[in-house]
Amino acid sequence: MRLNPHHCHRRLRRVALLTAWLLTAAVLLTSPAARAETVRIIALAQTVDEVLNNIRNWIMGILAGVAVVFLTIGGLRYLMASGDPGEVEKAKGAFKAAGIGFGLAALAPLVVEILKGIVGGV
């Protein structure tokens, strides 16, 4: 079985791009600016409203973070697909999951407002 040199060159270029991206992410995540000081707080929220707002913020952050991961996976799959229809479909599925994640993150404030109405938080 002979490999097409042009195909191998494209694959090597993609692997080099992925490696460079991962190295950049590793450098940024391990830099001193990425580290936070540890602070001990016993009780921050003092009302139900504050608790629900904190829950909203956590939900939005987690959903947006997971959506970004799916968006990245979809983009990498699309780049590495090399025209393979099955891989392109998997990439589209990851893009769809990212869109759903971003949509749910955008709806988190509405869910918290409904919870405030149920529990009586103002």
From TrEMBL:
The chain crosses the membrane at residues 59-81, 93-112. Keywords: Membrane, Signal, Transmembrane, Transmembrane helix. Residues 1-36 form the signal peptide. Pfam families: T4SS_pilin. InterPro entries: T4SS_pilin. It comes from the Bacteria. The keyword Signal applies. This is TrbC/VIRB2 family protein. It comes from Amycolatopsis tucumanensis.
